[in-house]
Amino acid sequence: MIRGWLDGWNEPGSTKQNVLMIGGGVLAALLVICLVLGWYWSREPDVFWVAETPPNEQRVVGYSTVNTLIRTVEWLLEKPGGYLSNDVTPPSVLLDNMPNFEYGVLQQCRDLARVLRNDYSRSQSQSLEDPDLAIAEPALNFSNDSWIFPTTESKYREALSALRRFQARMVATNPDARFYARADNLRDWLAVVERRLGNMSQQLSASVGQRRVNIDLAGERAAASTSPLGEDVTVRTPWLEIDDVFYQARGTAWALLHFMRAAQFDFESVLEDKNAIVSLRQIIRELEGALEPVSSPIILNGDGFGMFANHSLVLASYLSRAHSAVIDLRSLLAQG
Q1: Cβ contact 245:237 at 8 Å
Q2: Nearest 5°: phi and psi at 232?
Q3: What is the pLDDT tens value at each position of the chain, 336 positions in all?
């Protein structure tokens, strides 16, 4: 009986064999569609042009920064494939490059939103915070991988709506939203950027493994830490996380490039007064270099002076130079 049933499936031209062929064809087509969508959704975005003034061409201090933040959050939500970091279905769940790129962008959006709420929009420490920014900043800090009740996208759209309201109030005929372009405010944001770039460059450099001198408590004899380490510390990024760190760093550079260009417009008078425009342009140039197209289909992790390239070390060199330029810029802004 079983033999006859199997013979029925194998009989040429039988209905059962046709079902198998159709099913195999459908699966193959779905696989091709998933591969094409995965490739299309994983493409890195182009750099967009940062707007200096509103559509009415009247200069509004802070417009460029707020508008650029809005457009960056819009990209996270509206790009091909939408927001991918919280997807649980194919092909999104199988992708990791773009979700890590998204996370790098998201970190910079969160940092800027926090500074916008606590510093840029307040004239002094005891002034009232803006109500829309008080909504936008915590909404952007919602979990980046929640896929149900509430979804990450719903919270980020809530933040986007609040940022748009703040922008509309900035450019209104009688604006009641404020943006204070002062040297100390810019330094506060750059301090956060400095730490982010330092962290990313260290993680990228650790792709080949390093034995570093422990400088955690250097410079202060009475300093102490919870769990002191030895004189030397071995640091190495796990092999399976190397490309994750690489694309997170690329996302960081992409978002920072736009935010730096926006700061050049909004803080133009401050930068000119401190003779610091050249320093900001150097940061922008290094970030542009960090976003040069990757010609290799995979992220290579060769030894530092080995036969094969190490893309992480190349990217780390750009971010390290940008990090040094940020330190120089903060120093210039601190001078009278």
Answers
A1: yes
A2: -115, 145
A3: 555 544 555 555 567 777 888 888 888 888 899 889 989 999 999 999 998 888 877 889 999 999 999 999 999 999 999 999 999 888 888 889 999 999 999 999 999 999 999 999 998 777 889 999 999 999 999 999 999 889 999 999 999 999 999 999 999 888 889 999 999 999 999 999 999 999 999 899 888 766 666 666 666 766 667 666 666 666 677 777 889 999 999 999 999 999 999 999 999 999 999 999 999 999 999 999 999 999 888 888 887 777 788 899 999 999 999 999 999 999 999 986
Which two tokens mark 202?
A: 């260290």
DSSP H or E segment with residue 294: none
Question: Are the C-beta atoms of 64 and 52 separated by less than 8 Å?
Answer: yes
CA distance 256 to 109: 9
> Which is it for strands 210-213 and 232-235: parallel, antiparallel or unpaired?
antiparallel
Q: Are 47 and 260 in contact (CB under 8 A)?
A: no
Sign, CA dihedral 22-27-32-38, equals positive
Write phi, then psi, for 67 (nearest 5 degrees).
Answer: -65, -40
DSSP, collapsed to helix, strand or coil, labels residue 23 as: helix
CA angle 146, 148, 151 (to 5 degrees): 60
pTM of structure: 0.89
C-alpha distances in Å from residue 16, one per residue of 27, 44, 72, 170: 17, 45, 53, 68
Domain ranges of the chain: 18-179, 181-215+228-336
